């Protein structure tokens, strides 16, 4: 889930400074990034890793200000998404966008500490930390660090509340999968949790409205050049991202 790049920096730490990889300067270059609010002025920000309400329970390294950054290309596509959902009565609400390498390293350290479970009941009550890598909730690389991935939801202007998606951002579980209780490819609601598929689980699954709400977000993102992740309903990456092989390390702060 939190895609983590570790190998490159482990190797770089063993090299003298003059022998660091040539891509080092490029990874520190924020010149093709923008503040999302400069491109989408009415977006709502709730940058979870700047605060303490996240699965770690602390402010994450590298988040110096509660802002959201993206590559220019991703931000332009997100503006098209915003215009689309505004016509339907919604606004975009962003939890995370560009994520620096030191933040991903912070996730690694947290995942390797089995004693630190202060946020377990809120984000992973059914899991023990040692399985987070094994079950791919924590990865070795993060699309967020490439600068064209965003975690977001919809804010319903009529109720002045987040749209009910039937689950919280960063929930570690199959309940976060886009195909939970339905088929995201054709929008068909089934109400069935295919992972366990028992009557008891079906009764605890998404309502049809909650599933449809997820589809409103998903369909708008896909219409405007983003691709979805099969394990998180809130996570989208620009299909033609400008830096598919580059992982950046500058901090999150106003540009």
Which terms would index this structure?
Muramoyl-pentapeptide Carboxypeptidase, domain 2; 255 residues; 17% strand; two-stranded parallel sheet; 9 helices; disordered N terminus; alpha+beta; six-stranded mixed β-sheet; 12 strands
Report what the structure shows.
With 255 residues, the protein is an alpha+beta fold. It has a domain at 2-170 and 231-238: Muramoyl-pentapeptide Carboxypeptidase, domain 2 (2-Layer Sandwich). Helices cover 28% and strands 17% of the residues. It has nine helices and twelve strands. Strands 3, 5, 7, 8, 11 and 12 form a six-stranded mixed β-sheet that branches. Helix 4 (72-86) packs across helix 9. The model is unreliable at 2-26 (pLDDT under 50).
Short summary:
The two termini are 27 Å apart. This protein has a domain at 2-170 and 231-238: Muramoyl-pentapeptide Carboxypeptidase, domain 2 (2-Layer Sandwich), CATH 3.30.1380.10.
């Amino acid at each position: 889930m939190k895609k983590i790049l570790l190998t490159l920096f482990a190797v770089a730490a063993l090299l003298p400074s003059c022998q660091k990889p040539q891509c080092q300067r490029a990874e520190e270059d924020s010149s093709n990034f923008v503040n999302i609010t400069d491109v989408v002025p009415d977006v709502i920000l709730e940058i979870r890793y700047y605060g303490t309400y996240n699965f770690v329970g602390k402010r994450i390294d590298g988040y110096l200000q509660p802002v959201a950054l993206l590559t220019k290309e991703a931000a332009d596509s997100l503006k098209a998404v915003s215009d689309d959902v505004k016509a339907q009565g919604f606004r975009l609400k962003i939890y995370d966008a560009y994520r620096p390498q030191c933040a991903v390293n912070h996730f690694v350290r947290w995942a390797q500490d089995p004693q630190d479970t202060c946020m377990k009941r809120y984000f992973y009550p059914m899991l023990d930390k040692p399985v987070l890598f094994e079950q791919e909730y924590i990865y070795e690389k993060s699309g967020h660090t490439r600068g064209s991935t965003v975690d977001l939801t919809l804010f319903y202007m009529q109720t002045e509340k987040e749209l009910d998606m039937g689950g919280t951002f960063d929930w570690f579980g199959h309940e976060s999968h886009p195909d939970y209780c339905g088929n995201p490819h054709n929008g068909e609601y089934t109400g069935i949790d295919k992972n366990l598929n028992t009557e008891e689980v079906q009764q605890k699954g998404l309502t049809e409205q909650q599933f449809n709400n997820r589809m409103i977000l998903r369909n708008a993102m896909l219409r405007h050049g983003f691709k979805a992740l099969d394990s998180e309903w809130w996570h989208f990456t620009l299909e033609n991202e400008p830096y598919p092989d580059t992982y950046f390390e500058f901090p999150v702060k106003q540009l």
